[in-house]
Amino acid sequence: MANQKYINLKSEAVDDLAKKMAEAKSYVLCEYAGLTVQKMEELRAILRKENCVLKVATNNTIKRASAKDGFDQLKDTEGPSCIVMSYGESVDGPRILSQFAKKNKQLVVKDGVVDRQYFDKKQMAQIAQLPSKQVLLAMVAGGLYQPLQQLALGLNMIANGEGTKKATEVAA
């Protein structure tokens, strides 16, 4: 009877984590062996600001939850593992983890799932370099705005007669 209770508790933990993973826009598997409690709390605080959650779970729970979410590739669980789930932008979690890992060598970013696609360790490092959605939108807006600005300046120069003077000077 006691074993069945224990099995039910483990099953509920797997179901709960799988549900959270399914709701997240991305999740990343990490190994945190050697990080102090203070450093883990610092990381959690940084992640909370960006609408991300760090969940420490047993390796078996993480494997089963990710398999239940449809990603049984997430198996690189050796040592103390945690999973970071991003509920805001997809790249927030990987970006924060990558920056934190540069300063804290004990944190090892492994593989993960971003926008319902599996990525290995190398690909996760590339994803971490991507700018946020707002920065990308600003870049696109700037790219669209630049030709219009140049056209307006050119038309203004023609209207003021500056463009024809320079064209005749160049021709002469």
Concise structural overview:
The chain is α+β, with helices and mostly antiparallel strands and 172 residues long. The chain has helices at 2-23, 37-49, 59-68, 92-103, 121-128, 133-159, 162-171; strands at 26-31, 52-56, 81-86, 108-114, 117-119.
Describe this structure in words.
The protein is 59% helix and 16% strand. The protein contains seven helices and five strands; from the N terminus they run αβαβαβαββααα. The protein has helices at residues 2-23, 37-49, 59-68, 92-103, 121-128, 133-159, 162-171, and strands spanning 26-31, 52-56, 81-86, 108-114, 117-119. The protein has a five-stranded antiparallel sheet with strand order 2-3-1-4-5.
Topology diagram in text:
Layout: H1 2-23, E1 26-31, H2 37-49, E2 52-56, H3 59-68, E3 81-86, H4 92-103, E4 108-114, E5 117-119, H5 121-128, H6 133-159, H7 162-171
Antiparallel strand pairs: 1-3, 1-4, 2-3, 4-5
Helix pairs in contact: 1-3, 4-5
Defining key terms:
5 strands, five-stranded antiparallel beta sheet, alpha+beta, elongated, 172 residues
The H/E string reads HEHEHEHEEHHH
> End-to-end span in angstroms?
100 Å
How much of the sequence is in beta strands?
A: 15-25%
Indicate the mean pLDDT: 84
Structural class: alpha+beta
The count of helical stretches stands at 7
Approximate helicity band: 55-70%
Find the count of extended strands (DSSP E, 2+ residues).
Answer: 5
